[in-house]
Sequence to fold (172 residues):
Amino acid sequence: MKSNYLRIMLLLIMAAAINAEDITLTEYIDLVKENHPFFIREALSADIERKQADSLLGAKDWNLQIVPNCALLGEASVAEYGAERIEILGGEVNLNRAIWTTGGRLGFNLSSEYTSADMGILTYEGYRQRVGLYYSQPLLKNLGGRLDRLEYELSDYTVNFTEVRALENQED
Fold:
């Protein structure tokens, strides 16, 4: 029984060897580079560094800030104003951005507020709107936007170093 089993196994191994394709050393190395996890990891590490460098460009993006507010002041807190109750409802919207070429900050803001005061026999209702534009410019360290761009420019060296290290590791 064992001899029949060994003969069948030997026959299967020989059949597999006959149907096997010849592969050259360069083809084998190319297959390993495409499929081995080590080489895939090395290729991905450079891509990850590039993506992290691109994430630093978010500092060039516009920032939006929305601030709603609501206040109801009762008798104890408004007695000094001669009112029984004051209601305030409003909001503010700010939009700002870093300017990389100058290092400054440019911003716009808009606010609106509605106030209603109950003073017993009199009532007061008032509206207040404000629109603003501002620009701030650093005068010393970030003049010309050097500090805003520094981390992004340094990340380019990290990407290059990672690519070189990946190539060295692949050669080993």
